[in-house]
Amino acid sequence: MRHQGSWVFEGDSLIYRTSKRLKVKLLSLPAFLAASVLLTSLFNPVLFASNQTDSNEPILVIAGHIESRLDDNPNSPYRRVLTKILPAEKAEYRLYPVPRTLRDFGKETVSCIFPTSIDILHLLTDFPADQMIQSLPIDRVSSHIFTSPSAKVISATTDLKDKSIVVRQAVVEEHIDFPGVKTIVRTVDNQSALRMLLAGRADVMYGWIPDVYDIADEHGLTPPTFDPSLTIYATNIYLTCKNNKKTQNLLSQVNSRIQALKNSGNLREILGKNARLVD
Q1: For residue 133, how many other CB atoms are within 10 A of its CB?
Q2: Which of 33, 118, 153, 183 has the fewest CB atoms within 10 Å, measured from its CB?
């Protein structure tokens, strides 16, 4: 049975408290996963744990901080999902650099990542894809070129010739190196990028669905437009782990909870109207 608890911040840590003993720790790190492997919401996710075989040894979960989707807001969608699906009784929120995260994923016996996929991790690390497992899918995300509602939508990357594009500053340039782009404008977050687009200070914006629409809704901004036929990258979102007995047991519990959320309709309620659920 799942023990009830609550999330609280203590200094730099986000703690999930219950009256029971520690089982799983949740960690978070800033990063980007982009281009053909991308999740540029910019906090890279990874779960990893100790090499010890002791079943009481806690699994440490590093999850990706994503603006408006997984952050310090207790009601952010992915944070609510993690609270529902992980057999966690305590979690700690910490920032890790991407190289350390990927290094630890490679060296630790028990490692997992959220939100990501086997395809993404296989491209970011040298760990064999056939030695990883992933949960049932949570939802589907994709990146696009957005325009203000009054502007013509971008239907091909060639339409970006002589355009200025606004992106969050952590997106690496080769991932937005479209032919003929005149200027790349960088902002601290996606909310700022969207505000610049709507104010006419940039011609187009590079971003993700549903992130951009969630941000627009949260801050009362006009939703931008895009051509769905032009998708830069798309992937389903999973909890992804190295394949071993301990992670198999973890994912068995996680999958049961994911399926229950889908069957009850609670996953749609949690992720919101902009999310695209996956059967």
Answers
A1: 18
A2: 183
Given the DSSP bridges, would you call strands 183-187 and 164-168 parallel, antiparallel or unpaired? parallel
Secondary structure class of 80 (helix, strand, coil): helix
Q: How far apart are CA 254 and CA 260, in angstroms?
A: 10
Please check the confidence at residue 171 and state whether its pLDDT lies above 80.
no
- List 150's β-bridge partners, or say none: none
Q: Which residue has the higher pLDDT, 271 or 173?
A: 271
Q: What Å distances lie between residue 259 and 120, 137, 162, 165, 210, CA to CA?
A: 23, 10, 47, 39, 21
Task: Give the pLDDT mean for 212-237.
Answer: 95
pTM to 2 decimals?
Answer: 0.76
Burial class (CB in 10 A: 0-12, 13-18, 19+), 67: buried
Contacts of 199 (CB under 8 A, 6+ apart): none
CA dist., res. 148 & res. 125, Å (int): 37
Residue 59: phi and psi, rounded to 5, are -90, 130
pLDDT at 112 exceeding the cut of 70: yes
pLDDT in tens, 58-110: 566 777 778 888 877 778 899 899 889 987 655 554 555 566 667 767 666 66
**Residue 46 phi, psi (nearest 5):** -155, 140
Q: Find all residues with CB under 8 Å of 276, minimum gap 6, and list them.
A: 139, 140, 141, 209, 210
Considering only residues 134 and 30, tell me which one the structure prediction assigns the higher pLDDT. 134
Q: Which pLDDT value is given to residue 38?
A: 27
Distances (CA, A) of 273 to 20, 24, 220, 221, 267: 35, 30, 15, 16, 11
Phi, psi of 120 (to 5 degrees): -65, -50
